[in-house]
Amino acid sequence: MARFDWTYDEVVLAASLVAQNAWQGLRVTSPKVVQLSELLRAAPIHPIEGRPDNFRSKSSVQRKTFDIATQHPNYTGKPTRGGPHDAEVLAAFISEPVPMAALAAAIRDQIIAPPDAAPADDSDLDELTAHEGRALAVTHLRRERNPMLRAAKLAAVTAKGLPIACEVCGFDFAARYGERGEGYIEVHHVLPLHASGPILTRLDDLALLCSNCHRMIHRGRPWLTPSALTGLMGGSS
């Protein structure tokens, strides 16, 4: 039987409710629990096939909010068992409340936003079209340029105390260009659409890249992974 464990993004959405509720769990009667249940049941985070009738039900969402609330340092009772992401997400919300709230909003917006949120320029299609086909290439570029996805990824990286820098070569636009380069980076989706299909993008599927490394990854086929490009750079030194 398929498992439908709570993903990191789902836990972020639940934790945002707990944070708004003074770190107390929410009951099934809460309108926010009802709304999150409906959102998660509609989201393509998990495959439709095999979902049980109670998948992300109101009771399930209530339970997850209490899993998170009972992990809080100020909670004096016995924590519930919970899942692998609960403590990690809670700690991130406590240490970086503003970026994590922005991350939750971006995840929520991504679920409900139309897929064609950002246009793609013809000049960027050359390296993609041969491998993806033009329709998929356009969709892939839109996915990489989605401002909500970008904001969510940057918020997640910042919340972990990591620099906004290229994951391949380490180039930091702010360090090189000062204030003008602050917060600038390109976002690359590591899964081609021909391989992943039109699934909901997870933040772990996104990599931060400088312009040069991004171009080199998309150049030729099959695409390189960021780690593979890092290996090539090491071998050429």
From TrEMBL:
Gene Ontology molecular functions: endonuclease activity; nucleic acid binding; zinc ion binding
Stated name of the protein: HNH domain-containing protein
Top-level division of the source organism's lineage: Bacteria
Domain HNH: 166-219
